[in-house]
Design brief:
Length: about 475
């Protein structure tokens, strides 16, 4: 055998060093090994050393420059990007000064005012100070400073614009008495001043909203996007069996069904110190270890799937919204198919715009509006779209950073609007927009039980980017 191996090499003017020859001969099939090795080696070298064989075994490309490239199955073309100007990461201007807040609300006011003025049924508006002096029907736009119910069941709203403030009276007999108002939202009002000029009497309310005649226009895209919110790695009630079931399903089905994109809208880990006594509900008590474990879970997701990962209120970034992306000190071990983004953010996938917001403000919506509740987060999200703002109420449970620009304004009408946070699962079509609440991978905790919080976990919504068909994949069984 020794001479056969040496002869095969000599025919190609190649010579083994003694230790390299020993390595070849120790192989279970020395001739096959030799032939493959000789065919792979570059012609520039004359002597084959032990290192050449080690490199060959490890698949090092330097000894085989002519090796034909093999197109891996996961190198599918993907078309995904974070929309410039919608992610605060690296662009925060917030210094926390009083002036910052004035600038922040001014930005919100003008952005939303422009949207109301664009409505065909609205027309031109006048400033609040002028409207009170006109003595006739007119239209104003302002930001709601506060709202009160009067003894007689009417509603008064303090409405402010750059010219001043006025009290808007919404009579209990008027058609707009059924409207829901929240503090710091921007509304248009048509009506007229009272004879004394101290009130503006409303007869119709206008919101920025989404165009009424909008619908999902099918495209030739064949891909799908899936959503996994509120993974809560590190929680003692993390649903590992359900998670594994979902990963198995992705491994078996995602490639053939063109499921190429995955969005994780925050609370990717359970965090530490988020609420009193949380340490008793953690299986991983160190924040770095939680993210490391998450990295291991994410590695299991097939490589052809591009992943967008955002933070939520349980993650290790500033709590104030808009939140920047997770820092690399937590994510350095993550796969390269993970795109880290802030919260909220617009993601463009194959021509579709996805607005992804963790959903912390749902707490404030539910606390402020009697008709809204935690069991129906989809309706809360529709109210956000109507007002074109994800979190209007300042000073509630959602901390806000006064950036120069209000990132929580819904500037562009999305095709898909996704949130998590309340661990519910649901979908709705609102004027062509797929509204989705993207479940959770954590079962009910003691803390949630005590607060009467009932999750609907282990469900993965999947939206076909061409047809818009949305399926709720249930991994509970
Ligand atoms: Fe959560
Ligand atoms: Fe959350």
């Amino acid at each position: 055998m020794r001479s056969e191996v040496l002869n095969a090499a000599a025919k190609r003017n190649l010579f083994f060093s003694p230790d390299a020859l020993e390595m070849v001969l120790s192989n279970s099939n020395p001739m096959t090994f030799t032939n493959t090795l000789l065919a792979t080696l570059s012609e520039s070298s004359m002597f084959i050393g032990k290192k050449d064989i080690m490199d060959f075994i490890a698949g090092d490309s330097t000894i085989s420059p002519e090796r034909k490239p093999i197109a891996p199955k996961n190198k599918r073309h993907s078309d995904i990007s974070i929309v410039a100007g919608t992610d605060v990461t690296g662009d925060s201007t917030c210094e926390g000064k009083i002036n910052d807040f004035a600038g922040y609300f001014k930005n919100r006011f003008f952005a939303l005012k422009k949207m109301i003025e664009k409505r065909r049924d609205f027309g031109a508006s006048v400033s609040i100070s002028k409207a009170l002096t006109l003595g006739r029907e007119t239209q104003i736009i302002g930001i709601i400073y506060e709202k009160k119910e009067t003894k007689n069941g009417h509603m008064t709203i303090s409405l402010e614009d750059e010219s001043g403030i006025c009290t808007v009276l919404v009579s209990k007999d008027s058609p707009c008495s059924k409207e829901m108002f929240v503090n710091d939202e921007v509304i248009g009002v048509s009506g007229k001043p009272s004879s004394r000029g101290d009130l503006f009497i409303a007869d119709k309310i206008f919101r920025p909203d989404v165009p009424m005649n909008r619908s999902w226009v099918p495209s030739d895209s064949v891909s799908s996007v899936a959503f996994l919110s509120d993974i809560h790695v590190g929680s003692s009630t993390f649903l590992d069996k359900e998670w594994d079931r979902m990963i198995d399903w992705l491994k078996k089905k995602s490639y053939d069904m063109d499921l190429d994109y995955l969005v994780l809208p925050g609370d990717v880990v359970d965090g530490i110190g988020i609420f009193p006594g949380q340490e008793d509900e953690l299986s991983i008590k160190d924040i770095y270890d939680q993210y490391e474990k998450l990295g291991e879970y994410v590695k299991e997701i097939p490589d052809h799937i591009k992943i967008v990962m955002q933070p939520g209120n349980h993650d290790a970034v500033r709590l104030a919204e808009p939140q920047p992306a997770l820092n690399e000190i937590f994510t350095k071990g993550f796969d390269s198919n993970v795109i880290l983004a802030g919260n909220p953010v617009n993601i463009e996938i194959e021509g579709r715009t996805i607005l992804s917001y963790h959903g912390k403000s749902i707490d404030d919506w539910v606390a402020s509006v009697q008709q809204l509740n935690y069991d129906d987060p989809i309706s809360v999200m529709r109210e956000m779209l109507t007002r074109r703002h994800l979190s209007p109420m300042y000073g509630g449970k959602t901390a806000m950073a006064p950036e120069k620009k209000d990132y929580l304004v819904v500037e562009k009408v999305p095709d898909i609007f996704v949130s998590g946070h309340v661990h519910g699962a649901g979908k709705m079509d609102y004027r062509g927009i797929k509204i989705i609440n993207a479940s959770a991978w954590q079962d009910q905790t003691e803390y949630q039980r005590a607060h009467n919080f009932n999750p609907n976990p282990a469900i993965m919504p999947v939206v076909h980017l061409g047809t818009g068909i949305t399926r709720m994949m249930d991994f509970t069984k």
